[in-house]
Structure formats: structure tokens, C-alpha cells
Amino acid sequence: MDPKKPTIKVGILTISDTRTPSKSNIDSFDSSGQDLIKLINDSNVIESAKVVKYDCVTDDFDQIQAKMTEWCSERKVDVLLSTGGTGFSERDVTPEATLGLVQKLTPGISQAIMNESLKITPMAMLSRAVSGIYEKTLIINLPGSSKASKECLGVVASAIPHAVSLIKDEKEISKQFHEQLNFTSNNKLRIPDCVTKIACRHRESQFPKISMKSALTILKEHAVIQYTENNKIKYPTVWIFSTGDELESNKDSHGGYIRDTNSVMIKQILEQDNFKGQIFNYGIIRDNWNDLCKHFEEAFNNADVLVTSGGVSMGEKDLIKHVLKDHFKSQIHFGRVNMKPGMPTTFVTLMFKDKKKYIFCLPGNPVSAGVCTHLFLLPYLRSVSGKELIVHSLKAKLTHTIKGLDIRPEYRRALLKYENGELYVSCLTNYQQSSRLLSFIDSNCLLQLPSSSKTATVESNTIMDVILIKSIENTYIAPILQEMNLCIEIIKKQVISGNTKNEKPLLYSCIEDVLHLMTENIFVAKTEIIPNDFAMGYVLYSPINSSENLPPFQASVKDGYAIKYEDYWLQKSNLFNVVQVSVAGTVPGCQKQIGLGECARISTGAPIPPRANCVVQVEDTSVETKSSDGKVEITIAILKEPKLFENIRNIGSDISVGQRLLDQKTVLGPFEIALLRSVGCENVEVYKCPSIHIVACNDNSAYAISHKLKNMLKVPDFKGNIFSQSLCKNLTKSPGQFDFVFDYDNPIIIFCGNVNEFCYDNVESHIHISNDTRKISLGFGRMLIGTDEKSVVFLHINTCDSESIYNCVHLFILPFLRYITGRKKIISSIKTKCTMSSDCLPTDKFEKAELHYEDGEFKVTCFTMNHQSCLVNMPSSSDEINIKLKGGEKTELDAIITENSNSYFIHY
């Protein structure tokens, strides 16, 4: 969004008797309205627009007109987009309500939508949608289906800013619009022959294959940190889109179409990495020269960094490099990298209206796109964000021998584990096809394998370089969790014949005992069903199996020619007649059979024609005869003998019907969500996050505790709401003043400050007290856990000491939250090395410290208030430390991980 241009205020009005904005019921959730909001606010499909009003009304003439009148006459919106109520049923009255209100009709907008919709489906003729102007507001009726409403908005989105400026008589905006049109027309170039004349295209890439090291050096040279006027880092705005005629964004793929997973996956990878700049997902752009030029220009007007996936290989529809080079006169710094997967990865810069733009063109296969996002895009964005460490690279011991290396250096998906102070890496599968998202699911790193030209085999126990893409799986349990004497008092409360008595207190000696007590059979897990788009960071409640085959048809792995292979190389001629074309999006079964001596030009992902049994890549062919205009290949020669079934993906080779996709308690990240989207799974059942209510008594110390707690509990892996409440000093006068808290599902109530027994009694009156209810005295306060249909947890913290609060949060509260939201591991510990003198080290306590990874080891380098990423268990005396230091050894300390750092992730 251009800050110099006034914001176009948009209102989204959903018209339906059944839809609501609530996500609690997935069947009634208003996906159409919410998708339009995302398209405008996140993807910026309407330049300089923002949704400021949203509502759902029933199919009632008066309600529709009343809401439209309110928004338009009070100038609340510049554009009102209605969705729903445009069909033939008796309840469909949106067009009538609109016509009864507008003062001018805008038939061109309605006609444009109708024309484009009819190209997609003949059912579009059944829509009665209209558009017009009321007061100073443009009203446009859109269909009720989420897919159709997004498609129709896409038809007119580019014209809406100019329409608004004309309605509002904003001459300056109109002038800018025409200047932009003139810029576009003045920069129109002749489309290169290699694009319009297929027979003239290059058979091999014109870009040299550079090393990964050279590619990263180029990126580093262009990673310039920008600053604001206040000398703060200015984070770039990123636009993401996928390209391809074969892509569909809706849940129902059909024919030769596949679902777009890349644009959402790339955006979520950036969000997971805590990139602070704005990220917009533009969706899908078709493989069309004019469309690409238009959408690239729109992106350059609004973004600093543009990320595309698809369209960078050697197929006839791979236009990205041509558009950037020939139309925008950009500089392509590299167009191929010697790596697997992701060889066609391209990095481009250009000047657009005196501003430098950076473009990352990633391959279209989802695995290649995911790998290259981690290897190229993330390091660049980390660098321009001022981070010192831009690649999370570690060293680990290989658990098995690897043979059959590729000629290109390879980045295999692998599993990295931390066990007994060492890192181990293993490849889970040899099936690393770049279309197979399943290879990401149980992996958390990229294992860097050398080229087969350097070595034939990598032996087990070899120390390998790995790059983290998820958190490390940690199996180590520090002895401190099992041995530390905490003197924790557990009071078991029993109810016998209506009388309550407390048994003799039990003493629990370690943290592990308390965590076990807190989490075993006392808290009923709650679940909810949510759309995939909102599921990142949640934990899956039940396993998911695939209901589809992927691919659903035999598909080509390469751009090239599909032939029928029958020992043709022994024949006198290696010439083949090109008899048909199969591109991505071609409907399977609509192709003619391939005979001997015939071939079909085919694109990556396109269906294999009947009787064809192998695909020869473009690089292994030459054009022998072509039409006089160069547009058609008539005869090609195959220069290298192919293999049977070469470059063909069989039906269900990536995913088969009934195959397990995700196990229970899987944490949903970008790759997991992309996998579910690829097979049309749109909604998932996840563990529901409770709400946390921090209640501070009316004194300064309690408010200080409340503020510290709220900041500490705002961690990425907790998705629940955190509320702060104030409380009067005298609870006896207002005993019901916090009763509303118990209306929430699974509330966790944390009291801060000094409260009396009346507070505990009040809490107990709201929750079910069973014979097994316990009060846990933790030194810094008490905890009470009651089990009923709401599973209430009550915690009282009566200390203002920062260290005690920090320990309480990271040793008890956060592990408990991880447990009830489905995490497999609720607390992580690690062995660290410390080289500091004993004079600098405290003894016999938990100490906040900074943990980092250096020279193949995790180290504690200092105790600091600036960056606290772990709690270190200090020895009871300095003698043990001094003995080790005199012997030249590093002191080994156990640490509890409290925060992920730039150099590592620890899996909870």
C-alpha cells in the first residue's frame, strides 16, 4: 500500500441466512467475506485499499438496504462489496435492494464480471449481480461462493482505485492513475521470439550454473539494511505469488488442475521466522505475458521484495525470466544454481520509478520452493533485518551410510536429534522427489550432501553440515528435573460425608514430580475445528489420512516430449513427429494416443498422453523441422537414449488414498499445512488453547507481577488469549467481582499479590472439588487445579522477585500450557559447556544465562540481563568448577531452555 495515496475504505457485506463471522462452527463460518478481507488487506488486490467495515445480514430486503444506507450515506466506506443473494431463489434479493438504492448504474463493471465469469463456467449466466453508485460510494454485488467472489473481484480490482477517484473527484489520484497507464504503454515491448515462436526456443538454459557459495555471496552484496528517519531498521514489504495455468486455489481441484500450496507456505515460513516486515500473499497469476507484466508492475508499485514460485524452468510457459529481462530491463544476477532441488532458482534486481526492487524467482515444485525459501530468501531477509546469524547451520554425526549421491550437491530433508549432549542426523527416506511434500513432515533440517563427482559414498559417523528448518528434536532430560530438592508441599484435600479435611502434607522433591502431578488425569483436553489458514502453531488432535491420490494422474516431471519407448534407438531414425501438446491444466483423458514415431510436447506437471511411457527432457532434443513462422515444431530429434518410465510420476506416487499424512500431536507448521492443502483438507481438529486471566490486587507490587507475567507468557507456541484484570483489595465486600472469568472454556486464573483464604474459597466454589484435588505450595505461591467440564486452573503468585517469577513461568506454567495444548515434550533441557572462572559464577541456584551454538557445541558464554535464553543449574560449590578448569576442561552444566535463539531451535 502506497502511504502517499489516501486509503480506499472498503466494506464487506455478506448476505446469507446461514453464515456468521464466528469460527466456532465451521459449517456456518463466512468464508466468502473473510476471504475477501484477506485478499484486500493481506494481498492488496485493490491498490491502497483497506477493509474498515464487515458485517453479515440475512437475506432480507430491508436489512440489506439499511446496512448499505448506513455505510454509504455516512461516508464510512468508499467501496461496498456485497457477497451473496444474487441467484434465482426467492430469498435472493441483493440486486433488488441495490437497484432501489443506487443513483447511477455502472453497467461496464457488471458486464466485465459477467464476461470473465462465463469463461470459467457457463453457470455464471445465472447470476443477477448489479453495480452502481450511491452518494459517493461504489457498490458492487459479488456471488456468494468464496471461489466465485474472489474471481469476480479480481476482474475489476485494478479499475476500482480510478473509479473511486472519479466518484470523489480526486483529480490528483486520477492524474497518477493515467501516468501509470502511460508508463505501462510506453514500456510495452515486443514479446521475444522464443516465447511466441515455440520452435525457436532455447534447448538449454542461457544462464550459467553457479555454486551455492557464489549465489549466497551475490545475495550478501545486495542485502543492504535500510533505516527510517528515526534511525530504526526499515523492514522491506514482501509480495508473494504463484504462477501457473494448472493451479487452483479452491478446495476442489478438477481435471488437470492442482492446488496452490506454495504462496501460503512461503508466507507462513516467513511468519514462523518472525520476519517483521509486511507480507502479502497475492495468490495465483496465470502463465500469460500480459498478465505477468501487469501484476509484476502492480507488485513493484507496492513492495520492495517480490517472491514468485513457478515459471523459471525450460517449458514454453516458463515466462518469468523473459518478462523480467525483456519487458522490465532487469538484471538477472543468477538464473541457475548447482544444487538439488532448486536448480532454476533466480535472483533479479531492477530500478522501478527510481527505487530498487529485489525479486526471488523460486521453482514451482513445492519441495524446491520450500528448500529455496530457507536457503535464499530467509538469509536475505534476516540480513536486511540486521541479524548477525543468517543461516542456522549446525554440525551433526551421520547415523547411517549414504550411497547413490547426485551429480549436483544435494540438500536432503533429514531428522536432527539431540541426545546425551550430541547432535545426530539421519535421512528418513530416499524418496526425495521435489513434488513430495511428505518428505518435509518428519524432517527438521536440510542435510548437505556433496556431489558424486567428489565422493561415491558418505560413511556413517561422518560429521555433516545441516541447516535447521524446524526445531531440534530433544530427547535429553537433565538430572536436575529428577533430583533437585524443591521441598514442594502437596496438600491432598478429601471430602468425606460433606466434611472437608486435609491430609498430612506430602513432600515432592523435584520438578518432574510436580509436572507429573499437574498434568496427570486432572485436566480435560478441549478441541476445536479451525480452517488451515489459521492453524499454524496449533497441535493436531487426531491423525489425518489422505482422501485423494497425488498426483491424480500420470504426470511429467520435466519439460520435454512424451514418447512411446520400444527400443526405438535400434531403429534407423531417432526423429519423432510432434502430434499434440500437453500443458499443465490439460484435462487427462482428452488427449489422443501416442503411436510409434510420435511425441507430445509436454510441460512439467502435465498429464501423460495415453500409451506414452517416458518423457525426454528438452535439453536432450533438437528441432529438425518447424513451420515457416517458427511457431510450431513439426519434427524433433532425440539425442540421448531415454529409459522406460523416465521422468514420469505415477498416480498416487506422492500420496495415495488412505495414506497417513500427519500423526496425532503433530505441531502444524508451513509444511504440514501445505501438505493438507495439497489434498483438499481445509479444516483440522486441534487442541484448544485456554484463556489466561491475570488478576492483580490493587497494589503496586501486584501490578508489577501482572505486567511481568503477561510479557513472559506471550510466547509463539501459545495461541490462547491473555487478559489482565484488576481486583479490589477486600474480596469479602465484592465476592462475585471476577465470576465472569469462569464463563470462559478452560480458564487459567493467575492471582498476583497478597490474597486471603476467602479468595481460595471463592475459587473452590466455582470448580468441582474431587477427592483427588490438591493444593500445591511452590514457595512463590499456591496452585489449585479443579476438574469439571471447564477444567479450571487457579494459580496464586505472591512474590515480586523477578527471578522467582521467571523460574515459575518457565519451570511450571509454560510446561503446563504446552501439555494441555498437545505438545509431546513440555520442558527441554540441554548439556552446555562453560569456560568462565568460578569467581564469576553463582552457586547452588538457577541462573538466567545466554546460550548459543559455537564450534559444534552449545555454550553458556555469559550471565546477562540483555538476552536470557536458558536457566542454568549451578553446582552447590565452586570446588567442582575449579577442579575442571585446572585440568583444562570446560565445565559442563545442565540448562533449561527458555527461549529459542538465532542459532538453534529446541523442540518442545
Q: Can you tell me about this structure?
A:
The protein is of the alpha/beta class. Helices cover 25% and strands 26% of the residues. The chain has 21 helices and 46 strands. Strands 21, 22, 23, 36, 37, 38, 39, 40 and 41 form a 9-stranded mixed sheet that branches. A 6-stranded mixed sheet has the order 2-1-3-6-5-4, sandwiched between helices. A hairpin with a 2-residue loop joins strand 5 (131-134) and strand 6. Helix 6 (160-168) runs antiparallel to helix 7. It is globular. The two termini are 38 Å apart.
Cα Rg = 31 Å
The rounded distance between the terminal residues' Cα atoms is: 38 Å
What do the pLDDT scores average to? 83
Instruction: Give the helix level as a range of percent.
Output: 10-25%
**Low-pLDDT regions:** 883-887
The helix/strand class is: alpha/beta
How many strand units? 46
Q: Give me the number of helical elements.
A: 21
In this structure, how is the largest beta sheet organized? 9 strands, mixed
- Our estimate of the beta-strand percent is 25-35%
Q: What is the global morphology?
A: globular
What's the SSE blueprint?
Layout: E1 8-15, H1 31-41, E2 49-57, H2 61-73, E3 79-83, H3 94-99, E4 104-105, H4 107-120, E5 131-134, E6 137-142, H5 146-156, H6 160-168, H7 171-186, H8 193-196, H9 212-222, E7 238-243, E8 247-248, E9 258-259, H10 262-272, E10 279-285, H11 289-302, E11 305-309, H12 320-327, E12 331-334, E13 346-352, E14 355-362, H13 366-384, E15 393-398, E16 410-419, E17 422-426, H14 438-441, E18 445-449, E19 463-468, E20 473-474, H15 480-483, E21 488-496, E22 499-502, E23 506-508, H16 511-519, E24 527-531, E25 544-545, E26 555-556, E27 560-563, E28 575-582, E29 598-602, E30 614-617, E31 621-626, E32 633-638, E33 648-649, E34 660-662, H17 670-678, E35 683-687, E36 692-697, H18 700-713, E37 722-727, E38 748-752, H19 757-766, E39 774-777, E40 781-785, E41 793-797, H20 802-820, E42 829-834, E43 846-854, E44 857-862, E45 870-873, H21 879-886, E46 891-897
Parallel strand pairs: 1-2, 1-3, 3-6, 7-10, 7-11, 8-9, 11-14, 15-17, 16-20, 28-29, 36-37, 36-38, 38-41
Antiparallel strand pairs: 4-5, 5-6, 12-13, 13-14, 15-19, 16-17, 16-18, 18-19, 21-22, 21-23, 21-39, 24-35, 25-34, 26-33, 27-29, 27-30, 28-32, 31-32, 39-40, 40-41, 42-46, 43-44, 43-45, 45-46
